[in-house]
Design goal:
By secondary structure, the chain is an alpha/beta fold. The chain is built from 9 helices and 7 strands, in the order H-H-H-E-H-E-H-E-H-E-H-E-H-E-H-E. It has a 7-stranded mixed beta sheet.
Length: 270
């Protein structure tokens, strides 16, 4: 009999359960786009009513596509910089390090204390190159630990994180990363205001307290935050001809929908 783990999560931290459940459900499909056996194991070990967190099927597919795209961004970065440092902001219960490890990367998983505590109960990664940062990303204390690895190349990635915060918080973090890690790359996702509104309705229906705040209309909007911020590329969900979204392919012809959510890749500083 599997011993169930119960640990309350609140606010933004609770949203990790949504993506964990999506990964577990996807992994059990015969036509799965990803396989994450650890996600299945963690869902089975958690004392949680996951049924209330279930998303619409097309939203679940979008989450998996997003995860796959973030993985590819990291793999591409490591192919260009095999000894790079990657900081996974708001790591939740994701197992990205195991999926993309190239044998050289120095990896930091960063999240709030309640999340890291739960993570340590559920999974153990034993590599000298793997580190946990137990803190809010908006606290400056973790910078010093990561800066020890200068002048190696740095990537900071935040999947499903920044929209839950206010623009002034996200902007402030971008500027600090630019100043402390010049030349670093940042990959994050963002939505238009309308998508935030729709997603907030779903969060309320699921009885999750967190709400989305920061939004952008165009990826280049972030470049106006300060000198040295450059959009390298962006990806939107309808850019890929994903067979399991074929019923929604019409949406790619409507810019307001086709460009409503995306993943944005920035260079900060010189």
């Amino acid at each position: 009999m599997i011993e169930k783990i119960s640990q309350p999560l609140e606010g933004v931290s609770e949203t990790l359960l949504i993506t964990l459940y999506v990964r577990a459900r996807e992994s059990q499909r015969p036509d799965a786009m990803i396989k994450d056996d650890k996600a299945v194991e963690m869902v089975n070990r958690l004392a949680c009513d996951f049924s209330r967190l279930r998303m619409q099927r097309h939203d679940e597919i979008a989450v998996i596509m997003r995860m796959r795209k973030f993985d590819n961004h990291v793999r591409d970065f490591l192919a260009r910089n095999h000894d790079a440092v990657v900081v996974h902001i708001g790591c939740g219960l994701d197992t990205r390090f195991e999926r993309v490890d190239n044998g050289h990367v120095e990896w930091f998983d960063l999240d709030m204390p309640d999340v890291i505590e739960l993570r340590q109960k559920l999974t153990h990664v034993q590599y000298d190159r793997y580190h946990l940062l137990t803190t809010s990303v908006f606290e400056d204390g973790w910078f010093d630990q990561v800066k020890e690895y200068k002048p190696r190349p740095f990537m900071f990635m935040a999947e499903g994180v920044f929209p839950y915060f206010e623009e002034w918080q996200v902007k402030g973090l971008f500027l600090k990363l630019r100043d402390h890690f010049p030349g670093c790359e940042v990959v994050c996702d963002a939505h238009t205001p309308f998508v935030n509104w729709v997603d907030n309705l779903q969060l309320a229906y699921s009885k999750v307290d967190a709400r989305l705040h920061w939004s952008i209309k165009h990826g280049k909007d972030v470049e106006s935050w300060g000198a040295g911020i450059c959009l390298l590329d962006e990806w939107n969900y309808y850019d890929d001809d994903e067979p399991r979204l074929k019923a929604y392919h019409w949406a790619r012809h409507i810019p307001a929908i086709a460009k409503s959510s995306g993943i944005f890749h920035y260079l900060l500083g010189e």
